[in-house]
Amino acid sequence: MIAHTAAFFSLTSLMYGIFLFITKIITLFQKHFSDKNGLPNKHAMPWVLSVIPAMTLFGISTFRLLHYYGNQTGQHVESLTFFVIMGAFAFQTRYMLFWFTILKDYLTAEFWKKEFYLTMWWLICPLVAYAVMWSFAYNIFFKNPILYAIVILSTVLAIVMFIIISKKMTGCINNKSSIVCE
Questions:
Q1: Model-wide pTM > 0.85
Q2: Are 134 and 147 spatial neighbours (Cβ–Cβ below 8 Å)?
Q3: N or C end of the chain, less CB within 10 A?
């Protein structure tokens, strides 16, 4: 009974992940093609990484459903689960590398300005989701110290960015600093 309930919730999570993924991709492309200079404005730049958490949800939910299917039918789905997790992970890695090359100017110039806007929080969520997918792959498939180091690095980077953005937000709330709040 517990396995069936867990499978139901994994399926629900998977459907939600697919919905989020499709919605975000469509919204990103609409935003991308509507901007005159080809790139979103500085307020929307961090939001382009919002696809990564949906892919984490998609990959882990599919893994859980395949695991459930394998246990219920007696079929061996280990190789398929490997490709699901590694496929989601590979997509996340390529997507993150692509957008970080585009966000490089934003991260070096705009992020360090004394400004705060709510979309800055979108820089943290993808790093955490990426670390979750890495740790999932590490725990299930690869016991590699390089993967473990990348999980730690991604987590530390997310914590540092969280602290920086929290200080900016606190400065906006208290109106005690020279931070521009938008």
A1: no
A2: yes
A3: N
Residue 162 — pLDDT band, cuts 50, 70, 90?
A: very high
User: pLDDT tens digits for 94-106?
Assistant: 888 887 787 887 7
Please state, in angstroms and as integers, the Cα–Cα distance from residue 20 to each residue in 23, 54, 66, following that order: 5, 6, 21
**d(Cα 176, Cα 158) in Å, to the nearest integer?**
25
Q: Could you give the CA distance from residue 81 to residue 98 in angstroms, rounded to a whole number?
A: 25
Determine what percent of the chain is predicted with pLDDT higher than 70. 92
C-beta separation of 56 from 130 below 8 A: yes
144-148: average pLDDT = 83
In sequence order, the 6+-apart residues with CB closer than 8 A to the CB of 40 are 31, 32, 47, 48
Q: How far is CA 45 from CA 12, 53, 62, 80, in A?
A: 30, 16, 29, 35
Instruction: State the CB neighbour count (10 A cutoff) for residue 175.
Output: 8
